[in-house]
Amino acid sequence: MATQTEPHSPLYATYARADIDVARGEGAWLVAQDGRRFLDFSGGIAVNVLGHAHPHLVAALKAQAETLWHTSNLFRIPGQDRLARRLTEATFADQAFFTNSGAEALECAIKTARRYQYVNGRPERYRIVTFEGAFHGRTLATIAAGGQAKYLEGFGPKVEGFDQVPFADLDALEAAITPQTAAILIEPIQGEGGIRSATPEFLRALRRLADANDLLLIYDEVQTGVGRTGRFYAYEASGVAPDIMASAKGIGGGFPLGVCLATQEAAAGMTPGTHGTTYGGNPLAMAVGNAVLDVVLEDGFLDAVRDRALQFRQGLSGLIDRFPDLFQELRGEGLLIGLKMRTPNTDFILELRRHLMLAVPAGDNVVRILPPLNVQEDEVREGLARLDAAAEAVRAARKETAA
Ligand SMILES: *Cc1c(COP(=O)(O)O)cnc(C)c1O
Asked: Structural domain boundaries of the chain?
């Protein structure tokens, strides 16, 4: 499905890239240098919540570029206070630490949980329980947290302190909690793992277990946050708040930005000098982050996301009914859409690309569809038509090979 990086490429060969040289973007459309126009429902992997080149984000970035880019965190950055205030007012959290990526937001979450136990007189509690199929990033600690062999292999000893249990297995979780456990870390909906949702009952059980054992509950909402599921954060649907939460991807609308959010109690150990970042929360990032919230928190925006999601999901249910030989089920919430396939997901994604539509694979043989949150009704219809045409082509090709 993808061309190999050339033997003499000056780039690390870590990605098998698609045969598309990107040129520019317009809303839900990505234009290649050869002029092909793709319906971009890959969304920069759940990043481009407002599509490409949204005028409000462009204006905010331009204005800030002419004013002040970067200062370090040795000074007060008013945009940081403003964005932190808006995020904490809209969530369970009291305090925020800004980063440049999701993995760094997770690193901050892990450090915050360990320090919480440490300053509360329980330094022996540093272990964190995580779930099979999880993805928390590519730093040494976050690959240990994710626990996937394919990301750990060859990188030396796995960072200590992560205990993994099967997804949504409460008995295994209870058995994994020891006097050394500091926290439980979970994605309310696993993204890379194949758009697998934890039930509200399961999240409630986690909250009860955490409270009963003096553990912190950490959510990784790097992929599910900032309106993707039709709520500002996915956990709102369950009503079960965490103590700490990592957010990134959508929060910068394409500008590298992440944040670790926490209650004041959970963040009590993060005193001056305990953590830091050179770039995190710089004025450029804050200008764009605030501009994203201007749109996402506007009255009616999330209602519109839920309307579009309903339209898309009804269409996809029809697609599954028409092609039960290709599709097994529809997964996810809002515009975090997973199609669990019976045929190889990568083949279908390649066929979609031939029909000038972009989607992303996920684990468990799932096709991920991540439109911009401001996608238009006719673009959803167009997407459904291209999905149908690609499914028809895959079915025809399979019949041909079988014959
Ligand atoms: C993408 C992702 C991360 C890592 O984010 P990066 O910005 O790539 O470091 C962590 N957790 C989840 C759930 C993600 O989807």
From this structure: 56-296, 300-336+352-364+380-403
Are 220 and 246 contacting, i.e. CB atoms less than 8 angstroms apart?
yes
CA of 136 to the centre of ligand 1 (A): 5
Instruction: Determine the distance separating the centroid of ligand 1 and the alpha carbon of 137, expressed in angstroms.
Output: 5
- Residues that are catalytic: 135, 220, 249
What is the mean predicted confidence (pLDDT) over 86-96?
98
Ligand 1 mean position, distance from CA 100 (Å): 11
Are 83 and 293 within 8 A, CB to CB?
yes
Start-to-end C-alpha separation, the chain: 24
Residue 248 near ligand 1, beta carbon < 6 Å: yes
Cβ–Cβ under 8 Å, residues 281 and 252: no
Q: pLDDT band at 1, cuts 50/70/90?
A: very low
**What are the percentages of helix, strand and coil residues in the chain, rounded to 5?**
40, 20, 40
CATH of domain 56-296: 3.40.640.10
Q: Which of 124, 126, 95 is nearest to 110 (CA)?
A: 126
pLDDT digits (tens, 9 = 90+) for 265-323: 999 999 999 999 999 999 999 999 999 999 999 999 999 999 999 999 999 999 999 99
